[in-house]
Amino acid sequence: MSGEFYNGFAEYYHYHLEATGRDDIRFYTELSRSKGGRVLEIGCGTGRTLIPCAQAGVEIVGLDLSDDMLSFCRGEIEKESREVQNRIKLVKADMTNFNLNEKFDLITTPFRPFQHLGTVEEQLACLACIREHLAPGGNFVLDIFDPDLEFLTDTDRAIEFGEEPPFILKDGREVVVTYRNPSVDSVNQIVHCEMIFSVTHPDGREERHVQRFIMRYTFRWEAEHLLHRAGFKVKSVIGGYNSEMVGSGELIFIAE
Q1: Are residues 80 and 175 in the same domain?
Q2: What values do phi and psi take at 168, rounded to 5?
Q3: What residues make up the domain containing 236?
Q4: Between residues 233 and 20, which one has the greater pLDDT?
Q5: Are 227 and 142 in contact (CB under 8 A)?
Q6: Nearest-angstrom CA–CA distance, 55 and 49
Q7: Would 57 be classed as within a structural domain?
């Protein structure tokens, strides 16, 4: 994986609606507390779910490849009490190739970082690392989206969509986030994505930044076979963070 993902844009990412408006923080916090022991979060980003878990008393390690994401996360951690800070450890590493020399009772992948892996080989390498780091009796949570075929087969790729309400940063910059999917590789099940940050400075100057990345979509039974192939047993599958039925937009696998 490339370590350039979101480098330069972590602050924008941290405050955009799709991240701040998700209802997964409670899910991961409660799961981490109920499981007990140490937690490893893959793709911790800016600490959106990592820090609330630590606030809830959980000892947690956050792993990410982006320098910018980790730097922003450290800044957020520094705002916390010393007690909370002491529960958190950050590691820069590739999710397909890491060795932390310890086992975890729970390993999570909040908000779909697994889908940035573009090949089955990368997916299996990631799952092998996760399995190696999972303690006996531990659980692994794979968090991906449930593919929407109508959306994926929409051929009008030029239109930006999903405009979010603007948010204001501390220095007065106003940011509006939109999205575009310029192409979909249906053979390899890869969506080429663009996250667009339109920034207006207090003096009226405008900027437009584009973060490009891929999302590999995986269907439910394909994901189950992938997990079994990697040596996991799927305990349950839900379609949302309030135990919705599959078909509600998310695919959340709890495996051991």
Answers
A1: no
A2: -110, 130
A3: 10-146+217-255
A4: 233
A5: yes
A6: 10
A7: yes
**What residue type is 14 in one-letter code?**
H
Q: Label residues 110-132 b or e (16+ Cβ within 10 Å = b).
A: bbbbbbbbbeeebbebbbebbbe
One domain for residues 185 and 221: no
pLDDT at 2 over 70: no
User: Any idea what the CATH number is for the domain that residue 108 is in?
Assistant: 3.40.50.150
Neighbours of 50 (CB within 10 A): 31
Give the torsion through C-alpha atoms of 230, 234, 244, 130, to 10 deg: -40
Task: Give the pLDDT confidence of 147-200 residue by residue, as tens digits.
Answer: 998 888 887 887 999 999 999 999 999 999 999 999 999 999 999 999 999 999
Question: In angstroms, what CA-CA distances link 37 with 26, 29, 88?
Answer: 18, 13, 13
Looking up tokens 């999302």 gives: 215
